[in-house]
Specification:
The complex is a heterodimer of chains A (531) and B (222). Chain A contains 18 helices and 14 strands. Chain A has 531 residues and is an alpha+beta fold. In chain A, the strands form three sheets. In chain A, strands 6-5-9-8-7 form a five-stranded antiparallel β-sheet, with helices on both faces. Chain B has one domain (13-219): Rossmann fold (3-Layer(aba) Sandwich). Chain B has seven helices and nine strands; from the N terminus they run E-E-E-H-E-H-E-H-E-H-E-H-E-E-H-H. In chain B, strand 6 (119-124), helix 4 and strand 7 form a beta-alpha-beta unit. The chains are: A alpha+beta (531), B alpha/beta (222). The A-B interface holds A 2-3, 5-7, 9-10, 13-16, 18-27, 30 and B 23-25, 162-163, 166-169, 171-172, 175, 181, 183-184, 186, 188-192.
Chain lengths: 531, 222
């Protein structure tokens, strides 16, 4: 029995299944005088000739017939987990009762050890499976944790209002790579990490457009040489690009995830800035519109205050008209904005149709300002009219109207060449000030009636010709040039004027009254023109 | 003479002359037997002769040697560490006579010349699976060793890794050649043990005709 105890311990504690079977068969020969010992495991094909016998004796075991063997017995390998097979022992004659007892005990011990070993193997397999699953789970949790870290870090940046610099720094800290944020055109807006390039390299506009188009098509981070970039495109508009500088191709899934999150936060930031700018512009436009259209003192001051603008300073309304029929009002707006900023002449301006209106808060050199606008537009024409000073909110509509009149009243040839202050319009100011236009009408009719009737009937331009002639002090050369006609044509027209009007232009009184009448005629034309 | 001594494992005592086969599975279980066995020997002032085969076992024994150099508790004994290549498998083969001669010299020297009162020997037996000439004589050697044990105050521990020794017949023969067996932390008298003369009668020693036997014969005690 001690032999079985040692053997059982060896089987149970350390041996694998093969060792258990070998120990059992070897030990069986030592425990009894056997000639044949085999172990037939359940579920495996038995040795030749044993199938029927083992089926017959079942799980309780029993006598089996073996060729050339006087006695043979199948001892069941039983265990708590069920029947595991048989220890089949053959001998020339029947072993003693004690030997059979030992063989039965050995079979029981072998069954127990086998069951134990199988259970252990199953537990090991389960543990291995669990270990693999745990490892996967750990990987997934790690990736999720990293994703949350990225999200948390970048969300904190978005909330704290650290702007593009903060976003670049956060992505740099999350990836360990240099990070650049560029605007739509490739200009550097923010940099994080060492070795900031000076100057910052910039692609041609065509290359940039192609790159942006590719990045938008990919809809995920795009590698371009040593750079990996993602576009920030709120509402589909590309407003910026965030770039990882990665010459060693170290960027893996986590780094690309950080870049994509960074692009999303950048899109939010750029959309916020854009929206803020638009709101500010809209608010400025509203304030200027209200001032120009007329508002009460209290309301105007309150709205300007909300905008952070001091309206309680003298202002002049300046109206600028750009080249006709270009349709590029934004270029004119930007040109006036930059010129007014550099002069400086004021910061409150709006685009109104084809004109840009500036509320100037200084007494600038207006012609200098106009020339700055012209230069910004690429030496294209720009006209400028300046209204009288506004001391109060209620003065703005008047100053605005004056600025517009200043643009229209002088001869076109003159107004193209200089900024016109309403203050400098001379007799025009008097004419505009007359409330009863009928009086002016009668004065014009008295002096120019015949010529106007002739022009109306014949479609001629005698009044205009006379006006040009008088404005240029009777200089034939300058008059012909301003009307773009030949000198002889001019002489012919003046001859017709003398005949029809029956007037002597050499008389200073007549000259003065005709000059005043032609200016009054121009003033009426402007005052009655649709706005 | 000492009649009983601690093995280093809880509740396990050794007796002089023990020839123990210790079964374990894997290097961790091996070190749980090997290191306490040697540490206890050093603490008791024994001569400890250790032969390792696995480099990991060598690391554990080297660590113990370093510890013994600084720990006054372990300074009473002496640890001699050898490798299987320089003992069991010297010159690329295993010879029974040469190996018994080795133990005679090492254990006899420790007792007679160095004055140690007791010797703890331990061998990691995985070298026997190397396939080198003579390794097949392992069990004859183990049986012969039982005649050598009583000559000196000593214990011999043979380490067998069940993950490596997978042949059940060999396992039973290992049991038959060791009077004591250590398994699962329990040291037991081995009922499967067969005295050397009986065992060797059933398993005759190799003839002198084999090349290794010729080389080994030169080591036979005069």
């Amino acid at each position: 029995m001690r032999s079985l105890l040692v053997l059982g311990k060896l089987m149970t504690e350390g041996a694998d299944e093969h060792q258990i079977l070998m120990l059992a068969t070897t030990a069986a020969r030592s425990l009894a005088r056997c000639t044949t010992v085999t172990i037939e495991l359940a579920g495996e094909t038995p040795s030749v000739g044993l199938l029927d016998h083992l089926t017959h004796v079942g799980t309780s075991g029993g006598s089996v017939g073996l060729p050339d063997t006087g006695w043979a017995w199948a001892f069941p390998l039983s265990s708590q987990s069920g029947h595991l097979g048989h220890l089949v022992v053959g001998a020339g004659c029947e072993p003693t009762n004690e030997e059979q007892f030992l063989l039965r005990a050995l079979a029981q011990q072998t069954g127990g050890a086998l069951a134990n070993r199988r259970l252990h193997a199953q537990e090991q397999a389960t543990a291995a499976t669990l270990s693999v699953l745990n490892e996967r789970l750990r990987g997934t949790v790690g990736a999720l944790q990293h994703s949350m870290d990225i999200h948390t870090r970048l969300t904190a940046v978005a909330v704290s209002g650290e702007g593009q610099e903060g976003i670049a720094l956060a992505v740099h800290e999350l990836t360990g790579l240099q990070v650049a944020i560029e605007d739509r055109y490739g200009n550097l807006q923010a940099w994080a990490g060492p070795h900031r390039p000076e100057p910052y390299p910039k692609d041609s506009a065509a290359c940039r457009d192609r790159l942006i188009a590719r990045a938008k098509r990919e809809a995920r981070p795009l590698r371009e040489g040593a750079r990996v970039l993602a576009v920030a495109q709120p509402r589909g508009d590309t407003l910026g690009v965030i770039v990882l500088v990665d010459p060693d191709r170290r960027a893996g899934d986590q780094e690309l995830m950080a870049l994509e999150h960074g692009a999303t936060i950048l899109a939010m930031e750029l959309a916020r800035v854009q929206s803020l700018t638009e709101s500010k512009l809209r608010l400025r436009r509203d304030v200027v519109d209200e001032l120009l259209n007329g508002t009460d003192e209290e309301s105007g001051l309150a709205r300007a205050m909300a905008l952070g603008y001091d309206l309680q300073r003298p202002h002049r309304v300046v109206v600028v008209e750009g080249p006709e029929n270009t349709g590029d009002n934004d270029a004119l707006f930007q040109a006036v904005r930059r010129a007014a900023r550099d002069e400086p002449a004021g910061s409150l301006l709006v685009a109104r149709g084809a004109e840009v209106v500036l509320l100037a808060d200084t007494e600038s050199d207006w012609e200098h300002l106009r020339r700055a606008v012209v230069r910004d537009l690429g030496d294209r024409r720009a006209r400028m009219g300046i209204g009288e000073r506004c001391e109060k909110v209620v003065d703005f509509p008047r100053s605005y109207r004056q600025a517009k009149l200043a643009l229209r009243l002088p001869d076109r040839w003159e107004r193209d060449a200089a900024a016109i202050r309403f203050d400098d319009l001379g007799v025009y100011r008097l004419l505009i000030g007359i409330e009863d236009l009928g009086e002016i009408d009668r004065f014009v009719e008295h002096w120019l009636g015949k010529l106007l009737e002739y022009d109306a009937r014949r479609g001629s331009e005698l009044v205009r010709t006379l006006a040009h002639h008088l404005e240029r002090g009777g200089n034939y050369e300058l008059t012909a040039k301003s009307l773009i006609v030949h000198r002889s044509t001019l002489k012919y027209r003046l001859q017709r004027i003398r005949q029809i009007a029956d007037l002597d232009l050499s008389d200073p009184d007549i000259w003065f009254n005709l000059h005043l009448a032609t200016r009054a005629w121009s003033t009426l034309g402007v005052l009655r023109a649709p706005r | 003479m000492t009649t009983s001594m601690s093995m280093g494992l809880p509740g396990v005592s050794l007796a002089p002359g023990d020839h123990i086969c210790a079964f374990y599975r894997g290097s961790a279980e091996r070190d749980e037997i090997l290191v306490p066995y040697l540490r206890e020997g050093l603490r008791a002032g024994d001569k400890c002769i250790c032969v390792t085969d696995d480099p990991l076992a060598s690391d554990s024994v080297r660590a113990l040697a370093i510890e013994s150099a600084t720990d006054p508790d372990l300074a009473f004994g002496h640890l001699q560490h050898l490798y299987s290549e320089s003992s069991y498998l010297l010159d690329g083969f295993f010879g029974i006579e040469r190996m018994i001669g080795f133990w005679e010299s090492a254990v006899g020297g420790a007792v007679d010349r160095e004055g140690f009162g007791f010797v703890r020997a331990v061998g990691e037996m995985t070298w026997a699976l190397s396939g080198l000439p003579g390794a097949e004589d392992l069990l004859t050697y183990e049986s012969r060793l039982n005649d050598f044990l009583p000559r000196y105050p000593q214990v011999v521990l043979c380490l067998y890794d069940l993950a490596r020794f997978t042949d059940g017949e060999i396992l039973v023969d290992i049991l038959r050649t060791h009077p004591a067996v250590l398994i699962s932390g329990q040291l037991m008298d081995n009922p499967w043990y067969i005295e050397p003369d009986v065992y060797l009668n059933r398993h005759p020693e190799p003839t002198v005709a084999s090349p290794t036997a010729v080389l080994d014969a030169a080591w036979a005690p005069r």
